[in-house]
Design a protein that fits this description.
The chain is α/β, with parallel strands linked by helices. It has a single domain, classed as Spore Coat Polysaccharide Biosynthesis Protein SpsA, Chain A, CATH 3.90.550.10. 30% of the residues lie in helices and 22% in strands. It contains 8 helices and 9 strands. Strands 5-4-1-6-8-7-9 form a 7-stranded mixed sheet, with helices on both faces. A two-stranded antiparallel sheet has the order 2-3. Strand 4, helix 3 and strand 5 form a beta-alpha-beta unit. The radius of gyration is 15 Å and the shape is globular.
Length: 194
């Protein structure tokens, strides 16, 4: 079975809409790691997996457009967090499931993505390390868009709390799994360059 076939019912949403506070306000997805923008690492990994690659970005849309089939942005301009990006992505996704990934995890591999996607069904699938859910590594059924909208309007802003309320299937990964490493500080971005 080809990789494309295994993911053919999955849109992919890369979250790149953050404020970049730990990076001094710079747009994280466009920062270089090993001579490539962080977003390019994710793009190169997932591009063959889906015909619906969505990037959630709140600035620099011209730079991100070359990496996506669709771009989405938060409704509000005050950076309300990753749940806002998930909310926007679920609304436009073409397929019944949406694989959600952060833009700053360039060491992800296909095995993790395939294992996560195999768990997808009518409830979300999410990576777990210890007791902590990693909601930015998840597969969410698009049909939950209305449920997310209700939670959002009620004031929910935590992806972990929202996903936990849905009793998701979990993919257990070890603590400090290098595939899940986020390059979200200047120190990490520089110390991991080899």
């Amino acid at each position: 079975m080809s990789t494309r076939t295994q993911f053919n019912q999955c849109s992919i949403l890369i979250l790149a809409g953050g404020r970049g506070q730990r990076m001094g306000g710079r747009d994280k997805g466009l920062l270089l790691w090993r001579d490539k923008p962080l977003i390019a690492w994710l793009h190169d990994l997932v591009r063959p997996l889906s015909d619906d690659l969505i990037i959630s970005c709140n600035r620099n849309s011209g730079d991100y457009a070359r990496y996506a089939d669709q771009l989405v942005a938060d409704d509000d301009s005050d950076f309300q967090g990753p749940l806002a990006g998930i909310r926007a992505g679920l609304k436009v996704a073409c397929h019944e499931h949406v694989l959600v990934l952060p833009c700053d995890a360039p060491m992800l591999d296909l095995k993790l993505l395939k294992d996560l996607q195999k768990l997808a069904g009518d409830v979300p699938a999410v990576v777990r390390q210890g007791e902590y859910l990693e909601p930015l590594f998840s597969v969410i059924p698009r049909q939950l868009s209305n449920q997310l909208e209700t939670a959002w309007l009620a004031g929910e802003r935590s992806p972990q709390r929202w996903l936990r309320s849905l009793d998701p299937r979990v993919l257990d990964c070890p603590d400090h799994d290098p595939r899940l490493a986020n390059m979200n500080t200047p120190e990490l971005l520089n110390t991991t360059i080899k």
